[in-house]
Amino acid sequence: MPNEELDQKLSKLTHEELLALPTIDRLFATVRSFSVTALPPEYQTAIDADMWTVRVEWRSEDKWAVITRSGQIGADGTEGYESLPSSRTDKYIANYRFDLATALALAEETAKKISIMGITVESFIKIEDARTLAKEQFPDEDMNSAVRRRAYYEALKGMNPDENLTARIERGLEELDSRS
Predict the structure, then answer these.
(1) DSSP state for residue 46 in the 8-state scheme
(2) Are 53 and 35 in contact (CB under 8 A)?
(3) Element (DSSP H or E) covering residue 65
């Protein structure tokens, strides 16, 4: 079975089902990482979609860490840095290591709150939808052409953008107008 097909089948299993998979003679599989995102499946293959992903990674016997692109999440939901193994105190472990169920729940909450340069998951979805509309409207235009970029900004403008996206749209349209 090709790896892609196997990956698709495995991705639909719950973590309990994954852990219950039988071992194969001389082949051992260990689940050491889970990816958690608030993006719906149809957006998970978009460019930069991984920026809205939180990982739950195995660290030791029933101890899991919640990892973001810039650090790890503590028990109180705040982000911190992962210290060197030799520097980890009991207090550190109590704050940054969890059983799997707790780590997955914390990762889910964290994934819902991700904001990168003011762009939330909801904004990212609108941006991807606007890109798709512009591409469908002007399939022969380069992604960075003025015609396609204007169509993108106009599509985004019609998607009830938040304050941050509205500012980006205005800057983008002003830039296009200044080049005309």
Answers:
(1) S
(2) yes
(3) strand 63-67
Same domain, 15 and 97: yes
Q: Which residues lie across from 34 on neighbouring strands?
A: 56
Q: Which residue, of 64, 84, 114, is where some domain finishes?
A: 114
Q: Are 49 and 56 in contact (CB under 8 A)?
A: no
Q: Of 4-13, 90-99, 119-128, 132-141, where does mean pLDDT reach its minimum?
A: 4-13
Confidence of residue 30 (pLDDT cuts 50, 70, 90): confident
Chain centre distance of CA 86: 30
Contact 38, 114 (CB under 8 A): yes
Last residue of a domain, one of 64, 89, 114: 114
Residue range 33-73, pLDDT digits in tens: 999 999 999 999 988 899 999 999 999 888 999 999 889 99
Domain that holds residue 40: 3-114
Query: d(Cα 40, Cα 111) in Å, to the nearest integer?
Result: 12
